[in-house]
């Protein structure tokens, strides 16, 4: 079973939104998926409880940070939503159990400062250094026309981690989540939004050693 962890030490960075969309996308593509929520707010779990039975199923995974509780039988993909403040032994323990880590970062000064320490800590962990665990960054609530978003892109250049894509802020995300669904559950999702997710989805399916060297050409052009 593949395990994908969504992590950022700061609350409000978009972890739950990212986690539920990944779970929904894998489910839509015929994968048996489970979703574990380690955050105290249990946003992902609450979303899952509202998910209509007419949509592709996603099983809940009742876990704690030790991951000792087995995943539901038959699951091929596990998405793990993590709590704010994740670091130290808890972070190392989770990294020993997962295949990929996706780090959402918003164009916020506080978010960038918290992420900087987190990236430094990740770089020191053996599983990441040896490329046994792939780590990628996703810009969340990004409008590439704004100065704040440009500052985010410049800030992320200093880290040896791929910025795979940027996801814009849109009201349709809020509306979808409130109904227990995601943009991937709708046939009316805008092509622009699907294009923004595609680089991340492709990155998740590549070997770790290859994926760690990737960044999307579109983002490179913006950075220059």
From TrEMBL:
It comes from the Bacteria. Pfam families: CbiA. Residues 4-182 form the CobQ/CobB/MinD/ParA nucleotide binding domain. InterPro entries: CobQ/CobB/MinD/ParA_Nub-bd_dom (IPR002586), DNA_Partitioning_ATPase (IPR050678), P-loop_NTPase (IPR027417). PANTHER family: COBQ_COBB_MIND_PARA NUCLEOTIDE BINDING DOMAIN-CONTAINING PROTEIN (PTHR13696:SF96), P-LOOP CONTAINING NUCLEOSIDE TRIPHOSPHATE HYDROLASE (PTHR13696). This is ParA family protein. It comes from Uliginosibacterium sediminicola.
């Amino acid at each position: 079973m593949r395990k994908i962890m969504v992590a950022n030490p700061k609350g409000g960075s978009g972890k739950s939104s990212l986690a539920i969309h990944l779970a929904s996308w894998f489910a839509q593509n015929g994968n048996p998926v489970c979703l574990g929520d380690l955050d105290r707010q249990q946003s992902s779990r609450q979303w899952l409880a509202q998910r209509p039975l007419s949509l592709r199923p996603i099983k809940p995974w009742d876990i704690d940070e030790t991951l000792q509780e087995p995943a539901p039988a038959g699951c091929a993909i596990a998405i793990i939503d993590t709590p704010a403040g994740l670091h130290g032994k808890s972070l190392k323990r989770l990294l020993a159990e997962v295949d990929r880590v996706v780090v959402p970062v918003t164009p916020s000064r506080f978010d960038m400062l918290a992420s900087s320490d987190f990236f430094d800590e990740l770089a020191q962990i053996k599983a990441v250094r040896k490329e046994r665990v792939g780590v990628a960054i996703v810009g969340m609530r990004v409008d590439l026309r704004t100065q704040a978003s440009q500052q985010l892109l410049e800030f992320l250049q200093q880290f040896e981690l791929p910025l795979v894509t940027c996801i814009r802020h849109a009201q349709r995300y809020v509306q979808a989540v409130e109904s227990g669904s995601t943009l991937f559950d709708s046939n009316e999702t805008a092509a622009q939004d699907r294009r923004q997710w595609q680089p991340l989805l492709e990155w998740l399916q590549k070997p770790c050693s290859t994926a760690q060297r990737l960044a999307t050409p579109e983002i490179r052009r913006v950075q220059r």
